[in-house]
Amino acid sequence: MSSLYHPYDNHYPQERTQSPKLELSSSSDSIKTKRKRPEGDVPDQALQYATIDVIRSLQAQTPTGIPDNWQYRLDIVQEPMRARMCGFGEKDRRSISPLPFIRLHITENNKPVDIDNFDPGFFTICAILYDYRSNKEASIVVHPPSGTNISNASQQLGMKNLVGNCLVDGKRLKDTEGELGIWFVYQDLSVRTDGVFYLKFELAYIGSLGRINDKGIAPIPVLATATSQPFTVYPPKRFPGMIEPSPLARCFSKQGIKIPARKENKSSKFSPEQES
């Protein structure tokens, strides 16, 4: 009888277990399987997890966990241009077109920092919506709006105007020239109301949050900011349509990033096979 594969075979090739014996349950016809645990010392997978002390030793000995002499710059490579208002339904999503793509540049003493020396996923960017004409934050909207036929003000709710994934973690991706960088790719951003808006992006480092900090939860410093160009959110009947995926979007799609696009062949996601 052939031996049965076991996940610990790589550690103990001489102790391969035999095929388990099958027994019929007396109360039913179901089959019960008895598996024999591997003999000897089983490797403790928990030893792979980093403790708080280990994480502190791996980070820079600063309050934020990153070197104080690093400089940060956000470059909005792909700007939002237009969108269709998504309304106030829970499941309604009308992605901004095109979605913002932001590249992070980190330098130390005017020299680029090697991005292979840290996990870019500890960096995150928060998107905040602003009204272009008044230059005021527009992330929250009152629904129904004032002046509508409602019995009392208690029926009004403060709701998010910018919906979707407003927080995006950094990823190592190659651009169309094959250059590796830290990118923040928004894949799900919609606006509930029509108007002219712009987005403000704030960069933060979350690698030393919570219990990793010596003093527990601490304020998160904003490391860099960037502001997008104004874009228009249209009512449904006036929306001119989504913009075709850019070469950069196609490049990211080939690297496993899902980019929302115009529905083609009953598919709402762009895939590399759609390239002409």
In short:
By secondary structure, the chain is mostly beta strands. The protein has 2 helices and 19 strands. The strands form 6 sheets. Strands 4, 7, 11, 15, 16 and 17 form a 6-stranded mixed sheet that branches. Strands 3, 5, 6, 12 and 13 form a 5-stranded antiparallel sheet that branches.
The number of distinct helices, counting runs of at least 4 residues, comes to 2
The mean pLDDT is: 77
Percent range for β-strand residues = 25-35%
CATH fold title: Immunoglobulin-like
Q: What gyration radius follows from the Cα positions, in whole Å?
A: 26 Å
Based on the structure given, which CATH architecture is correct? Sandwich
Fraction of residues in helix = under 10%
The counted number of beta strands is 19
Largest sheet: 6 strands, mixed
Distance between the termini: 53 Å
Q: Please name the fourth-level CATH homologous superfamily.
A: Velvet domain
Uncertain parts: 1-16, 210-216, 264-276
Q: Based on Cα principal axes, name the global outline.
A: globular
The domain tally reads 1
Element order: H for helix, E for strand: EEHEEEEEEEEEEEEEEEHEE
Q: SS-based structural class?
A: mainly beta
CATH class assignment: Mainly Beta
